[in-house]
Amino acid sequence: MDQVSFGVFDWLDRGTGPVNRLYEERLKLLEAADDAGFFCYHLAEHHATPLGMAPSPALFLAAAAQHTSKIRLGPLVYLLPLYDPLRLIEEVAMLDQLSGGRLELGVGRGVSPYELRNFGVDPENSRAMFDEALAVVLKGLSAERLDFSGAYYHYADVPMELHSLQQPYPPLWYPTHTPSSIEYAGRHGFNFVGLGPAAAVREHTEAYRRAWGAHKHDPARLNGHVAAPKIGILRLVVVADSDSEAEAAARAAHETWYRSITQLWHAHGDHSIDGLFSWESSLATKSLVYGAPGRVREDIQGSSQRAAAIMSSARSPGGRYLSNRAFGRYASSPKR
């Protein structure tokens, strides 16, 4: 199989201790991930939910940049409808400069209608707002002056004094599982991450590759400066010395994480996502993998082969269970 890279995806969800200690511990873990050779640290953006204690990803990633030297860093994703695009242009450029050109720029419109509505954004408008905001951000990062007139955003002859270190802008990422969005990601050559059963992810990666192949020479591709986009699969991973120890840790972590990821939806009487993240469905789809190192290695290798993915983003449910020992096991195990 192709060489597989490993990254870390994080919600930075609230644990039982003080939030400031959560930040300190996670920064130490990032130092360990950096030493272990992980490709990238991806950080989700969420609001008004215990799922996301980093509602401003750039703040935490700026700190992470000062604690690491090799691992790439990026939001997965910036929720574009919640930002003033002009402000975000400057934030992205500054963060790429601070990290020495290690920024991976994930963009999206948000999966939670409740988070969007809390900011006064109608979910029905989020796609159009996303398209406009992304156009503004990419134009501003690659031009000396910004002019734009759309339905939601207007800018006239704004000087662009700050640019990203990576030119014309950092590599773009777009996670999704819907057919139209997969085609969009492939057409523009975004780095792509899928979640779900390996067979379904394989269908998505094949659709992505078809779209990418048909448009890879299109000069209008938004991520055209990336010659070989990465295709990833997201898995929740718990590694311990034995399968039984890993299962106990996974069950405890999943219980907390499940409450966090569903809390805002449940507060609105919405249980439509429960089946996506339950313990039973997570095991059935192998979106949750646990065990001793050998078992986990086999499961991840099998999922990557079945899904035809070339990057696996590993993340422990209930982030407090991430550990230096787990990263050490990764660093000392054979890479495939």
Taken from the alpha-carbon principal axes, the silhouette is globular
How much is the average pLDDT? 91
SS content category: alpha/beta
- Taken as a percent bin, the fraction of beta residues is 15-25%
Q: What's the number of extended β-strand segments?
A: 12
Q: How large, in whole angstroms, is the Cα Rg?
A: 19 Å
| CATH superfamily annotation | Luciferase-like domain
Supply the CATH class: Alpha Beta
Count the DSSP helices: 12
* Succession of helices and strands: EHEHEEHEHHEEEHEHEHHHEHEH
The name of the CATH topology is TIM Barrel
Question: What's the N-to-C terminus distance?
Answer: 8 Å
- Low-confidence spans: none
Largest sheet: 10 strands, parallel
The CATH architecture classification is Alpha-Beta Barrel
Task: Characterize the quaternary organization of these chains.
Answer: single chain
Binned, the helix content reads 40-55%
The domain count comes to 1
